[in-house]
Structures are given as C-alpha cells and as structure tokens.
Amino acid sequence: MLSPWQLAVLAVAGVLAGAVNGVAGGGSLISFPTLLAMGYPPVTANVTSAVTTLPGYVGGLAGYRQEMVAVAPHTRRLAAVSVAGAAVGSMILLIAPAEQFTSVVPVLVLASVIALAAQPMVARRLSRAGTEVGGRGLLLAHFVVSVYGGYFAAGLGVMMLAILGTFVSEDLHRLNALKSALSLIVGAVSALCFAVFGPVQWTPALVMSLAGIAGGRGGVTLARHLPPHHLRRLIVGVGLVLSTALFLR
Q1: What is the pLDDT of residue 131?
Q2: Cα(182)–Cα(81) distance, rounded to whole angstroms?
Q3: Is pLDDT of 164 > 60?
C-alpha cells in the first residue's frame, strides 16, 4: 500500500511528466526516476512509466485538434512504422538486460538535441539537393526512433521532432501535433505489450496517468503561446536537461 505522501508525489510527477510531453517530450525522465526513488526495480519502473505517460499524450493531442487536420496524411503514413518499431523496442526491453541499452541513452538524447537545433539548416540542404523529403529516409529514421521509444521513452519527443523537422515541411506547431500523435501510437503499443507481458505496477500507473492528462493539456497550452523559434529553443533546452540528467545518472 502506498502512503498518502507517496500518492501525492506520484500525482505531482504525473502532472509534470504530462506537461513536458505536451511541450517537447521527455516526460518519462520525470516519471521513471520517481518510480525508481520509490524502490521499484529499473525494468518495473520503466514499463510502469511507459504506461503512465500514455494519457499525457492523449491530453496533449487534444490541444492540437486544428493542427492534426493538416498533418493527418503524415500521421496515416507513419502509423504502421510507429506500431512496428514500438513493438520491436518493447520486446527488446522485456527480453534483453536493460543495462545494455540505458548506457547509451544519454548519447542518443544529446544527438537528438543537436539534430533538432541543426534541423532548419539540414532541411534547406536536403531541399536544395533534391532529396526526397518524407521518403525512405523518413521511414527508416522514424522506425529507429519508434524502436527507441518502445524500449525507453525518455527523450522520445525530442528525437521524433528532430527527425520530423528534417524530413517534413511543416511549421513547428504542426510538427509538434504530428509528434504527439505518433508518440501516442508508440506509447499505446508499448503500454499494451507491457500490460500483457511486463511487471506493471497498476496503482502508481493509475495515479500518474490521471494526473498526466491535465499536465499534457497544460503543456500544449504553453507551447501554443510561444513563437516557433522560442518553442524550438525551449525544446532544445529541455533536451539538454534530459541529456545532462541521464549522463549524471
């Protein structure tokens, strides 16, 4: 049984994780360490964290209803890739030792931040070179990111935005909406795999999930009131904090 203060901590962590996911992604870096601090084993904390962030994605997506109409074709095209990648990543987590992958997570998050910061320049060069924007490169890159998201979701939103911004010609708010939809798909597949095969702790998952809905909607409200270049800087900043925290851990 969890004490009242533990439930309160879980609720606060759920709100914060949902808000971070709504703005840029990376809410798992809040929910995952919170569960670790409460004494749950790493794999248990990881799968429970993956389940808890799912409603936050729903709340975030609700705030992007208008943008979702514009990016619906991209969502349909990448949905199957998201499902396949998330399923592969989830199975890897449940079968292989977690330590083998978590050791490279900080490097991956840092690389995604650099990619997001350099995305406008990269996209311009791809355009001038006549590269097929949204072609096989996007499908392959998104599959890799979805595998990562199925395994360990911290920084998933930052990585996904970096990939989408390079290959998809849309403004940042629409890209954020697309990221939210695809993150929801990855999160739903992972949550289903973990619910059936993983050691999910359902009481913490329920508390943080309900709190994450409100946090996700609040994060989108914040993101919508920021100019695109400010939002990009905020997302890069969040990514740097994620990477630094993971390196220190």
Answers
A1: 46
A2: 10
A3: yes
Torsion of CA 73, 75, 76, 80, to 10 degrees: 150
Joined together, the tokens standing for residue 59 give 């709340």
pLDDT per position as a tens digit, 75-122? 999 999 999 999 999 999 888 876 776 777 777 777 767 776 776 676
| Residue 212, C-beta contacts closer than 8 angstroms, at least 6 positions apart | 14, 15, 17, 18, 21, 27, 52, 53, 54, 55, 56, 59
Residue numbers of the domain that contains 91: 4-248
- 214, 33, 53, 45: which is closest to 149 by C-alpha? 53
**Alpha-carbon span 126 to 235, nearest angstrom:** 23
Instruction: Specify the higher pLDDT residue, 23 or 127.
Output: 23
Structure tokens that stand for 34 in this block: 């919170």
Q: What is the DSSP letter of 198?
A: S
Comparison of pLDDT for 108 and 133, the residue scoring more: 108
Number of domains in the chain: 1
User: Positive or negative CA dihedral for 113, 118, 119, 125?
Assistant: negative
For residue 126, pLDDT beyond 60:
no
13-27, 74-88, 140-154, 202-216: the lowest-pLDDT one: 13-27
Q: Provide the CA 173 distance to its chain's centre, in angstroms.
A: 16
- What is the token pair recorded at 101? 């992958």
C-alpha 145/C-alpha 142 separation (Å) is 5
State the chain's maximal CA–CA distance in angstroms.
60
